[in-house]
Amino acid sequence: MMNNIPTFVKWAGGKKQLLSQFEPYFPMEINRYFEPFVGGGAVAFYIIKQYSPQEVNLSDSNEELVNAYNIIKDDVDSLIGVLGEYKKRHSREFYYKIRALRPNALSRLERAARFIYLNKTCYNGLYRVNAKGQFNVPMGSYKHPAILNEHELKEISRLLQNTSVETKQFYEIEDKAKRGDFVYFDPPYYPISKTSSFTAYTKETFLDQEQERLAKLYTELDRKGVNVMLSNSDSDFIKNLYSGYHINFVLASRMISCDAKGRGKLKELVVTNYLPAHQLQISAYPAPDSSNK
To answer: CB under 8 Å, gap of 24 or more: what pairs does 133-141 form?
Structure first.
């Protein structure tokens, strides 16, 4: 099942590799699903395929990402056609020509094609913008970049048909999520070292103040009876913010530093405001009878 989850962009902190570890922490039933930091969408696509929720609400503050989702949803065949042309024309000169284009001067279709093309051909699949919101990652050194995967795009389009994908800030879901809903937060991770402090998915940063605001929202949703799950780095700062909840750990393969020696498994946090199903089963076992001892 995990290998059948499609993705259309490379995304720092992507969760596809963690789905098998996440599965025990999802609620047993999901009817309404919210994901305010949708990113590459691996968790959302897994939830849709595995749980078939009645309502799915995806959002992100990255306008280019959200636009790409909606073009895939509404006009995937045209997108495939444009990406096919980009694949034929791909070169260093073409990359920087496309990178120099300003999204606001393009059609929604052209913006989506540009976004996906740059993501697939830039250095390390890194999405980074400068203070003016301009994409500024150099070209990668791929011999055969995966610019177009027609099968995955069509599969994603099918999965998105009954979803809402909007450009929103994470805190805008507070008034929408209600008792019994499931919300998954996957924010830019809190830096655990100077070499892992990348947070520029958009021109806004996401550091202490934003993490604290997210933790406050987590608490508000908990009070409303919403089931909430959150991923973040294994840092004292984050553990203190969520000390009143169930904190578990998963192991992820991450680029810890630019040095190849700094690559390996990192422990990451999974925070839930409910006891996961597998832990409920453990806690439900009767205590050993010691009366005969």
So the answer is: 133/202, 133/203, 134/102, 135/99, 139/92, 139/95, 139/96
Question: Over the range 120-159, which residues count as b (16 or more CB within 10 Å of their CB) and which as e?
Answer: bbbeebbbbbeeeeebebebeeeeebebbbeeebebbbeb
DSSP state of 265: E
pLDDT at res. 288 = 42
Domain boundaries, the chain: 15-61+168-284, 67-152
Question: Mean pLDDT, to the nearest integer, of 118-145?
Answer: 86
Main-chain dihedrals φ then ψ at residue 162, nearest 5 degrees: -110, 30
Which CATH fold topology does 67-152 show? Adenine-specific Methyltransferase; domain 2 (1.10.1020)
Fold (CATH) for 15-61+168-284 = Rossmann fold (3.40.50)
Q: Per-residue pLDDT tens for 74-89? A: 999 999 999 999 999 9
Question: Would you say 119 and 133 are in contact if contact means Cβ atoms under 8 Å apart?
Answer: no
Q: Is the pLDDT reported for residue 168 higher than 90?
A: yes
Rounded Cα distance, 53 and 263, in Å = 36
Q: Name residues whose C-beta falls within 8 Å of residue 128's C-beta, 6 or more positions apart in sequence.
A: 135, 136, 137, 198, 200, 201
**Nearest of 82, 100, 84, 80 to residue 92 by alpha carbon:** 100
